[in-house]
Structures are given as C-alpha cells and as structure tokens.
Amino acid sequence: MEAHPATAPGGSARGLTEAAVLTWRERASERTLRRDGRRWTLWTLGVVVTFGAPAAVLVAIEPLAAPAALFCGAHAVGILHLQARRGARAVVPIGGPGSAALRPGADPDAERVALGLLGDLLGHSERELASDTGFAIQRGRMGIWLSGEAGALLVRPGGRRVDCWCVRVSEAGELPAGDRVAHLLLALREDEAGFATVANSNFSGSLARVRRRLPARSRPALDEARRLARAMR
Amino acid sequence: MSRLIRLDRTGHTEVAEWSADDRASQEAAIEAFRRELEEGMLASITGTDGSGEVVRELPLDADLVILRRPIQGG
C-alpha cells in the first residue's frame, strides 16, 4: 500500500485557513514535533522517577513496606496508562466507541453516502483499510497519518513514536462518521503542518502503548502505518 | 461535467455542476461557490496523486470541488 502524500507538491501556497487565524500558535514543524516528543519522554521519565524512586527507597529501608511500594509503583503505571489511553481513544475510528455512526438517530443512508465519498477520496487498498479499521491512512512529510472522526494519529518516521492529536469538525452537528473523517483528511491534504498546528496534541510516546489501547479491529491500521513509517527513516 | 459538492448531514449534497461549453452553468456554479464561502465553508480540490489544495475561487477546469466546514482542535 502506498498512501497518498499530504499537501500539494511544494505545499499549498496559502495553507490551511484555520491555521492562519491561530496567530498565537507556533506553526508545527519537524522541530516542534521533536521538541514536544522529548518533553513527553521527559514527563514519562519524571512520573517513573517520582513514584519509582520512593518505592525503591521504601523497600530498601523496610522490606515489609513492599505493599506500599507496590501501590506507589502502580500509581505511576496508572498515570502512564491513562495518558496513552486518552491519546488513543480520542481519535475515534469509524464504528468504534464514540463513533457518530453509532449515535442514536444516526441516518444509515447518510452514513453510506459519506462512506462512499470517503472511499472515492482514497485509493483502493486505503479504502479497504478504512473499511476494515475505521481509519483513513495518509502519507505526509511528518510521517504516516491515521485520521479518525475526532482526531488523528501520526506515526513518525522510523515507526517507533506515535503522536496523538485531538481535532474535529467545528459544529459537526449531525454529520455522518465518514464525513467527519473526510473533513480531517481534506484538511490534512491541504496543509499538513497547518493541520498539526490546529490540532491539540494530547499524547506522544511509543507506538506499542497506543496500539494496546486501540480497538482490536483498528490495530492493523496502526501496523500498516508503522510499516510505511519504517520505510521513511 | 464538473461538480461542486458540500459535505453535510446527508453525506454530501451536489451544490452545482457545470461543463466547459456551458457558460450559464459556469456562472451559476461560481455564484453558488461564492455563496457557500460566504457562509463559512472552505473549498479544496484533490490532485490525481491525492494531494490537496485550498481554493478560494472556483477552478472551472477541476472535475470535483469539495466544500467542507472548518476544523478545530478538540
């Protein structure tokens, strides 16, 4: 599978309209992604050290305090688990938990029409992947993107790190699930860096941590993105 | 025939269609396009390689122009 490239060759001269109005935000770039990734890694280490070091000292001083030390360590694991889960779940693949397609009153005809258009925007194998996993895959300069209904995952070149982004249609209202993904896909194709500027990052870390927290049917999309991202290294 | 479509609650709606040899249909499409942009919609075209480009005037040589709503951080 060869996911289509994001952003017109040479980049869209005018870029994403939504990003242009966010004058207070630094435009996303390779540099900002690397910097934010390092911050997330430092935060993770901070959590481990903050809870792990006292636990180790406690056991060293008094082995009988091991249950308390275990509780302390579990607290750190819990925090890290919740952060990765929040990143993975906010994306919402089509048909996954929180999908507009599953909401009460969803119009099956509209859902079918929207999925048809989304399929038209994708290549053959990408269409199959979207149908199976609920994610639209898109090659970018920053990595391989997976667009869901309410966010996107970016598998960075090399395939080890995933950035999770919260981004959605303004006033989505009664938009069918396929249209929500199509909105994000179109915006991503228009201006990849602008898309990452508009979106709110809510997690960056190892691919394995995010993969475990995705619905099982959506994991092959992340596997495919990792395969493509490894070739970008 | 070229088409201007809007992503909406029905999946999508065809707002206008035009052809190269029909000036009236082109003018109607241009008018419809402007009206949609005034209402806050954004337009883009997709290249054959899947890349996208924002358009603020109706490209009459495009096969398909898609109107979408703005996006925002969640």
Layout of strands and helices, then pairs:
The complex is a heterodimer of chains A (233) and B (74).
Chain A lengths: L16 H4 L9 H32 L4 H24 L18 H14 L2 H10 L2 E4 L4 E4 L3 E5 L5 E9 L7 H14 L1 H7 L1 E7 H7 L5 H12 L3
Antiparallel strand pairs in A: 1-2, 2-3, 3-4, 4-5
Helix pairs in contact in A: 2-3, 3-8, 4-5, 4-6, 6-7
Chain B lengths: L1 E7 L2 E8 L4 H16 L3 E5 L5 E4 L8 E5 L2 E3 L1
Parallel strand pairs in B: 1-5
Antiparallel strand pairs in B: 1-2, 3-4, 3-5
Overview of this protein structure:
The complex is a heterodimer of chains A (233) and B (74). Chain A is α+β, with helices and mostly antiparallel strands and 233 residues long. Chain A has one domain (27-230). Chain A is 53% helix and 12% strand. Chain A is built from 9 helices and 5 strands. Chain A has helices at residues 17-20, 30-61, 66-89, 108-121, 124-133, 177-190, 192-198, 207-213, 219-230, and strands at residues 136-139, 144-147, 151-155, 161-169, 200-206. A 5-stranded antiparallel β-sheet of chain A has the order 1-2-3-4-5, with helices on both faces. In chain A, helix 2 (30-61) runs antiparallel to helix 3 (66-89), helix 3 packs across helix 8 and helix 6 (177-190) crosses helix 7 (192-198). The two termini of chain A are 17 Å apart. Chain B is of the alpha+beta class. Chain B has one domain (2-68). Chain B is built from 1 helix and 6 strands, in the order E-E-H-E-E-E-E. A 5-stranded mixed β-sheet of chain B has the order 2-1-5-3-4. In chain B, strand 1 (2-8) and strand 2 (11-18) form a beta hairpin. Chain B is globular. The termini of chain B are far apart. The mean pLDDT of chain B is 94. At the A-B interface, helix 4, strand 4 and helix 6 of A face strand 1, strand 3, strand 4 and strand 6 of B. Strand 4 (161-169) of chain A pairs antiparallel with strand 6 (71-73) of chain B.
